Amino acid sequence: MTDSEQIQRGRTSIWSKLLPDAGPGRLLVLCTAVASLGNGLYVTGGAVYFVRVVGLSPGQVGIGLSTAGVMALVLGVPVGFIADRFGPRGTTAVLALCKAMMLISAAFVHSFPMYVVMAALLGTAEQTGHVARGALVSGVMGREGRVKLSAYMRSVFNGGFALASLAAGFVIAVDSPDVYLALFWGNAAAMVVVSGLYMRLPHVPRQPKRPRLKGGPSAVRDVPYILVAQVSGLARIGPTVLALGIPLWLVTHTDAPRAMAAWLMLVNTLMVVFLQVYVARDADTVPGASRLQRWTFLVLAVACAVAALSGGIPGWAAAAVLAVATVLFTLGEIWGEAARWGLRYELAPEHAQGQYGGVFATGDALAVIAGPVLVTTVPDRLGLVGWLLLAALFVVSLALSGPVVRWAVRTRVSGSEESNLRDAVRTTTPRQ
Question: Could you list the residue ranges forming a coiled coil in this record (predicted)?
Fold first, then answer.
């Protein structure tokens, strides 16, 4: 093999880790890449704009973001139902356009009430778009490819978001209202492009309206599935610890260099970009996803215990300890996301991926609403004991993980039963 062939093979190997094969999967990854660039620009620079230019306080900005999170959790199931009923492709494209409209309206926000409304609608379009997109991924890729593609999409999103955040840093340095607004216009344009790209994907048939049959599945009544979602959602406290808790702890309770907070996040980003697809290969079945979830909670508990050791030791030692903790937290994040995809898809009926995805998203409630306060105040106020309390939370999650998944598996409708239910629906549903 010549040197040029070896170089080309090496390049092909690198790209194969970041991109799926040509086809609908690669188009979905392209949508994710474009969206991540726009999202990274807005998230990093938008908050600064509303504080520096509009005159809001950081607390008011936080209220708007929290309101968006709560609304998205409430509306996730209805949007999932709409995706099933009217087709996930069109629903996802429409929500991308709604996000673009809200980004345009952000330029006209001049008061706190206007900001809360805009932020709530923008966040709702963003988060419920994830629910509809999950149903779209399942419909386009099928059981064999949806978990792996989700891993590709997350890997690319993290890389694009990181690059956009760096670019937004230059915008913040310029500190010009017109340049800040360019972030909004740029993100809005990106979402219009993404909406058009979604419509180029293969059509996913909509599900006909189904009469309520005795024994038929219903997402909002599926208690075992809901419990799996709640337990899985606890793993998302881990990334919150890494993004908020670790930097605050590093600055206020250790002698490690302050600049290391940014270096740790770089380590996290690179690990996600290059390892997420590899890790997700075992998460496309319920047993594999359940096993990964147990490893997730175990490594997150150990990571909390390791982070606790960084206080009261020399700066170089604290830096080393926090680096180890960051690797552990990132492994927990990667494993946890892969496990979530497997459980979210495999435990849901194929004809109701949208509404079940909306129900699964409710598992994020604790991580979204209470997570930031929990990871910043408990270690800060209680020190070593606070870190051990966080570790105990993950240990309890580990203990719950296996039983709730096994319960959900026992209560699933079998393939033949679901087929019989589908036949019954066809005989009672008029032609559209």
Answer: none
